[in-house]
Specification:
15% strand, two-stranded antiparallel ribbon, 326 residues, 43% helix, alpha/beta, single chain
């Protein structure tokens, strides 16, 4: 691991300090998550922008691998939570246990207290248990028996669900979906990448030997630098134009909320920094508008309700009609 870098929290982000840190992180994760450079970049964008990621895809395409590789690369603690119908909120958050020797209740933290959390098959548990994640994802804290327990930064939730299997699953509530900055898909690798993957797994799991390239403290500095990425007023107006277009669309019953616009704003800052820029350009907005906004809108027709593919097409069509700032 390279010597720790220090970024000035008051000055605009110095790309000379940021670039080597981010390029090393992307390269390290990409060395085991083969052929998925765009997916890796999106996960890093969410990390920098202090968001969370919902990965919607079939089993066995590398969702768990991505979470493990990212946690290992940033020297952070990692927990995988397997969501099942009988999972209780206390199984995720933790609980207070009575100590007979002292006569006091002691808090035993649950797996949510890791810095990188994989919520595997999140739609297989009840809405009550899903809602246990809301405070942790929104406020970076957990309240147990009236006491708030802060989560150690950086904090990232990577959740997965299978869009093609419905038996024994629960639809994610809109409030839960809204807490995810990005919804992405892994997809299958092409033949050459899959052959390379087979060769790399010949003697074991490559992620097991993956070492950190930046510290958790450096990630927090990068998150602070992300907030200082410049967004021109014309770019901000472009984001607002998109949001208002969704609210006025005849095809959508629910448009993008104010939180959705703020999330797009922050994600664009993260993508700009990952791309080696201290300013946002219109292409950043275009690249993120679907993964950030498509799961926050609701189509009017019955066939479109809850159908991400339909909402993605509507969002793309709306963006294509809008004037792009120069």
């Amino acid at each position: 691991m390279n010597p720790p870098q220090t970024l000035d929290p008051a000055a605009p982000p110095s790309m000379d300090a940021v670039r080597p840190m981010l390029s090393g992180l992307l390269r390290n994760v990409g060395s085991v998550v083969l052929g998925k450079a765009d997916v890796v970049k999106m996960a890093v964008v969410a990390l920098l922008a202090e968001g969370h990621v919902l990965i919607e895809d079939v089993p066995g395409v590398g969702k768990t691998l991505l979470a493990r590789a990212l946690a290992a690369s940033i020297d952070c603690s990692f927990h995988r939570i397997q969501f099942t119908p009988d999972l209780l909120p206390s199984d995720i958050l933790g609980s207070s246990i009575y100590n007979s020797a002292t006569g006091e209740f002691l808090f035993k933290p649950g797996p949510i207290f890791a810095q990188v959390v994989l919520a595997d098959e999140i739609n297989r548990t009840t809405p009550r248990t899903q809602s246990a994640l809301l405070e942790a994802m929104s406020d970076r804290q957990v309240s147990i028996d009236g006491v708030a327990h802060p989560l150690r930064p950086p904090f990232l939730v990577l959740a997965t669900q299978n869009p093609y299997e419905f038996e024994g699953t629960y639809v994610l509530p809109e409030s839960q979906l809204d807490r995810f900055m990005l919804r992405i898909r892994m997809g299958y690798p092409d033949r050459a990448e899959e052959r390379q993957l087979l060769a790399s797994h010949r003697v074991g799991e490559p992620v097991d030997s993956l070492g950190p390239v930046i510290t958790a403290e450096e990630v927090v500095q990068l998150q602070q630098a992300t907030r200082r990425v410049r967004v021109d007023e014309s770019i901000a107006d472009y984001m607002l134009d998109i949001a208002h277009a969704t609210r006025e669309s005849d095809e959508l019953h629910v448009g993008v909320s104010t939180r959705g616009v703020l999330t797009l704003y922050r994600a664009c800052q993260g993508l700009a920094l990952v791309s080696g820029r201290a300013y946002v350009v219109p292409d950043d907005v275009k690249a993120l508008v679907v993964p950030v906004l498509a799961h926050r809108v609701l189509g009017k027709s019955f066939l479109q309700a809850g159908e991400f593919g339909a909402s993605e097409a509507i969002i793309r069509d709306l963006v294509d009609r809008l004037r792009v700032p120069h």
